[in-house]
Amino acid sequence: RRHTRYPLVTGVQTCALPISEATQTEIRPDSQITIRAILRNHSPIAVRDLVVQCDVDHAGSSDQYTQKLETELPVLGRRTLEFSLPIQKDGLYKGKVSIDTDDALKIDNTRWIAFEARRPDRVLLVDGQEGRSVYANETYYLETALRLQMTEFDGPVRSFEPERIVWEAGKGFPRLDGYRAVVLANVRQLTAQDAQRMESYLRDGGSLLVFAGDQVGPESLKEFERSGLLPGIPKRSSVDGRFRVARWDHQHPALECFNDPQQGDLRRIDIRKLLPLESLATDTKSLLSTTDYIIAAERKIGKGTSIYFGFSADRDWTTLPQSPMYVPLMRQTLAYLTNQLSERSAVTSETISKKGQQAGIVPKADHQEEWLVSNIDPRESELRRIQAD
Fold first, then answer.
1. 125-184 pLDDT, tens digit each
2. Residue 253 near residue 233, CB atoms below 8 Å
3. Between the CA atoms of 174, 179, 185 and 190, what dihedral angle is there, to the nearest 10 degrees?
């Protein structure tokens, strides 16, 4: 009997909090900031009336948010909890999720968290040709792509809030100072006053994306061209055929991810009709081109950026909206125009792996406005037998 091995059974609870993370950090009127916590019970004793608390502070003010949830953990089981915090201010937040229990290993009862809460970037979509149904609108595919909430290329979440107006139904642009980018999709007529307002918007740091279409031509764009708001001079008329992208700017922030064909092959974009640029303006660079034509280009105007696409935003001239390439290309382009691609993450997370490291949140040594979040390895809570190696 003395040589028989029995499993370890004790009367001590061993709860752990291996994961806590911010899963929803966008500030929207119809949702709240969400913190997810995963709890584990490593003991053969069920845990009842376990109190889990989330505490978060706003780094830029004295605002504090606290929420408590009560749960149970079955024997050797796990639970997932979600905390909803009514955060309405942009900025950096730091805090912790902790469990209130008297167990044998207290070091894994707290997980430190930090995140940046922000509102989505507002994008004005100007629909130049409203369809008979919502699916036929010039901006339908673009609006659908921008409303998706997703993480792209294992990077940060791109966040947009598109707002659509019909150009013919109004009297020009609304106030533009609240928008990070403006998209013109097949807009037929643009006046000198429109060009003047757009120039002021761009020089103050706004961004412009222009799509061609059957209503777009040198006459409709002449005021924008005269004011230097376009990357080049469009051809006098559109050209028909079958075109594919032959070259693109491999170093451009919005396009460099497509250098890996696994992320999408730009050469597979099929275009039936084009309004290409005949020539480029000074301080302008080509983004996309076929064998014979420049079909996309960019120009810096003051603090802002203007990009021209020589194809339509819908299916009239290209099959791009029906392909898997449409969503990443459009979202990468708008993320670039709203400076989301250049923003560095304000929070870096690490797992403690060296002697002397402490769990917690501290400013980074080289960037005081950024934080380093340190937590213990979740495997520290595992009580199962392991091999010596």
1. 999 988 888 888 999 999 999 998 765 444 456 689 999 999 876 678 889 999 999 999
2. no
3. 40
For the chain, the first-to-last Cα distance in angstroms comes to 29
CA distance 220 to 375: 58
* Cα separation, 345 vs 362, whole angstroms: 15
The structure tokens listed for 198 are 């757009």
Dig out the tokens for 17 from the structure: 């909090």
* Chain center to CA of 253: 14
Alpha carbons 213 and 323: distance in angstroms, whole number: 19
Find the helix or strand (DSSP H, E) in which 162 lies. Answer: strand 160-166
**What are the tens digits of pLDDT across the range 223-272?**
999 999 999 999 989 999 999 999 999 999 999 988 887 777 888 889 99
Among 13-22, 69-78, 134-143, 223-232, the range scoring the smallest mean pLDDT is 13-22
**Tokens coding 130:** 């409203």
Task: Say how far apart CA 125 and CA 110 lie, in whole Å.
Answer: 45
